[in-house]
């Protein structure tokens, strides 16, 4: 019987007819021969044996079953962000400011890794307003304090000498042991209404797009009874301005979000624009010619008139702030409505009402950055109908192929009666 175990690019195979275990690489070149007795003793404990590198070099089986190299330690900033402390960038700033401790020691180096199941992590809470008479610094808003100054202010507060502090300074323990669970990744498609901003917080009290997921978060909290476990921290993928509506992605996966919005991915966005009056041909040509936005010249990939000349379909790829609005304005047109209907290969579902959301399927996630799917999804109305007709013809051909050869000459009505009779 052959036993396989893949680890670190090495395949372990038990050779038939021999009483030894040989480690071979993908070229099937022998690397090491393990002691048969060690293998026999370890195999009695588990039929599926996994041996680490030390076991191969030292002729002994692994006691842990997995090597340290096979499970790398996560970065501290990633763990803090996954546990809901702040965004990844904000967590990196906390570390740089010396406001994070690991096992009682202040950590200020980026790239520090930890073991969430063992290490204890604390953060120094940020005060909203602190005036230090000793140092003359004011902490709050965009101002920052060094680690030494912050600790000095903390000591002054504990001694009663600090003034103007609205929130007491102190270290707070972060339950990083929940990192693997709290780090679960979620992806949502949202039909954003007007009046919602794409931000994680707003001092002016405006409505946030991430708040549209409040029902889902409430259900998550009801399902997870542990009060110490932090819910996922969501953010929007890119932006859709407050006066616009339509498709918006919300997730807690920063790497995927960066891949979608980065220009190198080639992900395009499609909008439906409403105008105050019909667009003339010179205005349409000016719109297609492009304009300068934020110091960069941009032009739409496609411009199409939908029905009357007051509704346009515009496809862009640059992703500049207010790009579509600036293009319309430069053409001498006045925009009255703007709705995003597609990102990459994913089109806003027609059954997703305004303010609604639904979780994305794995196939839909792949379609977003799949350029071939995107090309089909971004086709104009006539081309899209041709693609649909071709797909229907392929389905009809597949259905005809499933009909027995003796019945293929019969008409569709006869075949339909036969199908109903069989049912």
TrEMBL record:
The keyword Kinase is annotated on this UniProt entry: no
Residue segments, region Disordered: 130-166
Species per Swiss-Prot/TrEMBL record: Volvox reticuliferus
Swiss-Prot/TrEMBL keywords: Isomerase, RNA-binding
Lineage of source species: Eukaryota, Viridiplantae, Chlorophyta, core chlorophytes, Chlorophyceae
Protein family: Belongs to the pseudouridine synthase RsuA family.
Gene3D superfamilies per UniProt: Alpha-L RNA-binding motif, Pseudouridine synthase I, catalytic domain, N-terminal subdomain, RNA-binding S4 domain
Superkingdom of the organism of origin: Eukaryota
Record-level Gene Ontology MF annotations: pseudouridine synthase activity; RNA binding
Protein's name in the database: RNA-binding S4 domain-containing protein
Comp. bias (Low complexity): 145-158
Record bears the keyword Isomerase: yes
GO biological processes: pseudouridine synthesis; rRNA processing
Cross-referenced PANTHER family: PSEUDOURIDINE SYNTHASE FAMILY PROTEIN-RELATED, RNA-BINDING S4 DOMAIN-CONTAINING PROTEIN
Domain RNA-binding S4: 74-134
Stored NCBIfam families: pseudouridine synthase
Database matches in SUPFAM superfamilies: Alpha-L RNA-binding motif, Pseudouridine synthase
